[in-house]
Amino acid sequence: MNLLSRTFGTHRWIALVWLLGAWGLPTSYAQTGTAGSPNPRVASVNGQPIEVSAFELSLQEQLAAGATDSPALREAVRRDLVIESVLAQEAEKSKLDQGSAFRLRMEATRKRLLAQAWQQQWLQANAPTNKELAEEYEAVLKRAGSKQYRIRQVVLRDETAARLVLQQIRQGKSLGDLAREYSVEPLGKSEGGLLPWVTVADLVEPLGQVVASLQTGQTVSEPVRSTNGWHILQVEADRPYVPPTAAQLRPQLIQAVSQRKLSAAAQALVNKARIEMQ
């Protein structure tokens, strides 16, 4: 998603693109500075420079969001910065930066950026150790267990409806047919409630514990409640689970450990702060 769509939303971005096409906005801009100058620029708008540092920051945001670096991407980033500069200048002419609402938003944005900067700095200074990653991998294996399961389920909003469906299953009706008719979960409609192969760690609690207690072909005797609703579960098959290696899971392990450590560090700061709720 480019800078304009982040700022104005999809519908306004479409309209703005149409207008820019109608106006014939130039497709390239001469760099007005050099790498050796104090403030090298990628463009200038009504005499106001767009510095290389701003361009590089915006480009890094795009790459972090999953974009692929290319000449086309770099040109698009530069165009976005030019458009942003044009509109910002117009806003200043209308004194939109002097209103109280704008100042409140600026302060909120400043705090959010500072919080993000602290988190980034903390993560760089506190990278997970190999020991922490190994411990996280062992925890992942323990949570996943030794089996994968093929589960069919009906998910309903309330317990009464779930019990009525379970009663129909006991009377011989197909769980898959009932899932297609009544389930509020998307796969219930399209696949008769049949889920892909999962481990107990893939399921929201307490579904994992329940599934691990069932035999192949067995249906729960009572509806099971989770944060998603009331479940009628049936285990259709199971097989041994061969987990990914620690090397294959390394990015996920780093993310999990880093997030947990970061949350703990932030909570420690909150605990030390003097907070007075109004």
Give a description of the structure.
The protein is an alpha+beta fold. Among the domains are: 3-94, no CATH class; 147-240, Chitinase A, domain 3 (Roll). Helices cover 55% and strands 12% of the residues. It is built from 11 helices and 5 strands; from the N terminus they run ααββααααβααααββα. The protein has a 3-stranded antiparallel sheet with strand order 3-5-4. A hairpin with a 2-residue loop joins strand 1 and strand 2 (48-51). It is elongated. The two termini are 38 Å apart.
What's the N-to-C terminus distance?
38 Å
What order do the helices and strands follow? HHEEHHHHEHHHHEEH
Specify the CATH class of the domain at 147-240.
Alpha Beta
Shape descriptor: elongated
Largest sheet: 3 strands, antiparallel
Q: State the CATH topology of the domain at 147-240.
A: Chitinase A, domain 3
Structural class: alpha+beta
Keywords for this structure?
single chain, 278 residues, alpha+beta, Chitinase A, domain 3, three-stranded antiparallel beta sheet, two-stranded antiparallel ribbon, 11 helices
